[in-house]
């Protein structure tokens, strides 16, 4: 019998060691798996390489991990939180800045067995030519940030007369995602724009934890209506914020 | 000494640009002046607004009591959907962008070069964040820039070569400013319209890139 529902979040996430690479769903606070992120903080895990589109503008979820100094490297397109940059320029966290579409496709590719792909996004820019600072250090004399290491230059190739850059698929040790509905087999359904990076992060994880807002019976979700099948999900946990159902969608009657 | 000119307001720039949107276009709007465009889309022209986080058919901001944490735009602000809307994941959202399914992206800019290079994502020394800008300019069929003609210190933003880090090379197809409309064809800028009351000379004085004059229509009243 396949039953991926875990009763206790804390003991389930004990499996995640410090230093792990984590692919995380969400776009800002929308669809962000705060229960799982909070639990890893509560377990005092640290030194993570976090792969997530944006940090969000608050100190919950990814922001909490950052504020508590638990992130070693961030792979993202839009970090935004000012406190993140303080840490970055102080040399306490590395930033691998990736165009948003490239990040989504790298997760999709990694989860799909595609080692790498060529994309025109970023060609001819400092995110591809080896000049973007991955890591800073502090000048001992002046106290100013100085570049310690840059992101590697991308291989390039022309297709149809246009320059493309080689980007690698991402496979993460673990994925943390959030869904609106899920069943014991791990079948997931997302709601509105909270879907965003969640299915892609789930595909890219060697082991994927899904927190769900609503547990449904197996077969309650019609097979045609499952956004992400349970084969991509290893552990199903209840989100601590199990939010009320939203009967209407703003703007649609 | 430059002559003084009074160009279009931000709303008028958005209105001028909106007049060029065609019925059925799929359009992505960046932050700033581009977000003023929807209110000026002409009657009878239906466009589908795309947001990077996977929304096709983005509507206006909701009333506070209708805000939904699961429905935001690409700026993470509460959003609504229009009739006929669809939701996709982020990989599919950017398949739309890069795959040639997005007709136009409308973006602000720090600088545009004479051969269509765009710089709009990063001011060195400030906090770097790129979002979907590089995918949008690489993938959209048309890249329309809407911006002030000169910066706050009066320096041209249409330049021979961008000094800010590039978002993409030779990607801009049109530039709408408070003074002028340029088209970029084959890596060459053409001045197509002057704003009402603005002379071609005034534009030349404020533009640091070479361009051809191709003024057939002037600028229709906005």
Folded structure, characterized:
- The complex is a heterodimer of chains A (about 250) and B (about 220).
- Chain A has helices at about 10-15, 35-40, 60-65, 80-90, 100-110, 200-205; strands at about 20-25, 50, 70-75, 95, 115-120, 135-140, 145-150, 155-160, 160-170, 170-180, 190, 205-215, 235-240.
- Chain A has a domain at about 10-115 and about 170-175: Glutaconate Coenzyme A-transferase (3-Layer(aba) Sandwich), CATH 3.40.1080.
- Chain A is α/β, with parallel strands linked by helices and about 250 residues long.
- In chain A, the strands form three sheets. In chain A, strands 1, 2, 3, 4, 10, 11, 12 and 13 form an eight-stranded mixed sheet that branches. A three-stranded antiparallel sheet of chain A has the order 5-9-8.
- The relative contact order of chain A is 0.18.
- Residues about 245 of chain A have low confidence and may be disordered.
- In chain A, helix 5 packs across helix 6.
- The termini of chain A are far apart.
- Chain A contains six helices and 13 strands.
- The two termini of chain B are about 30 Å apart.
- By secondary structure, chain B is α/β, with parallel strands linked by helices.
- Chain B has helices spanning about 10-20, 90-100, 135-140, 200-205; strands at about 25-30, 50, 55-60, 80-85, 105, 110-115, 120, 140-145, 160, 175, 180-185, 190-195, 210-215.
- A ten-stranded mixed sheet of chain B has the order 4-3-2-1-5-8-10-11-12-13, with helices on both faces. In chain B, strands 7-6-9 form a three-stranded mixed sheet, with no helix packed on it.
- Chain B has one domain: 3-Layer(aba) Sandwich (Glutaconate Coenzyme A-transferase).
- Chain B is built from four helices and 13 strands.
- In chain B, helix 2 (about 90-100) packs parallel to helix 3.
- Chains A and B meet through helix 5 and helix 6 of A and strand 4, helix 2 and helix 3 of B.
